[in-house]
Amino acid sequence: MIIKIDFESEEAIYIQLRNQIIMGIATDRIHEGDSLPSVRQLAENIGINMHTVNKAYTVLKQEGYIKLDRRRGAVIALDIDKIRSIERLREELSVLLARSVCKNISREEVHDLVDEIYDYYTGGGQG
């Protein structure tokens, strides 16, 4: 698993780490049942504090992307309730779309961008 952290970004490192893992799942680089590196191992590999990795894993667990297993550590477990996921997506999209409207980005431009990104993750645009 390759994690790229932008230490110059205004986005918190634990959020970047969380997002990288979610994108890894969406692009099939990480699969259901895969074990993630231990908190210590990942922190050392990236060069960040163990508490930061622990916070990212905690958020991923709360969001239903991983479960914590005594023997295997953090394991990908996609048991998210779809209705809850749609509601969370609605909240996140509301802010993004409000920002788009403020920047005069058209509905068509938003739809095209959503289609492009969705196709990237589902393989619809490859081939």
From TrEMBL:
It holds the Pfam family GntR. Residues 11-79 form the HTH gntR-type domain. SUPFAM superfamilies: Winged helix' DNA-binding domain. InterPro entries: Tscrpt_reg_HTH_GntR (IPR000524), WH-like_DNA-bd_sf (IPR036388), WH_DNA-bd_sf (IPR036390). Keywords: DNA-binding, Transcription, Transcription regulation. PANTHER family: GNTR-FAMILY TRANSCRIPTIONAL REGULATOR, HTH-TYPE TRANSCRIPTIONAL REPRESSOR YTRA. This is GntR family transcriptional regulator. It comes from Ventrimonas faecis.
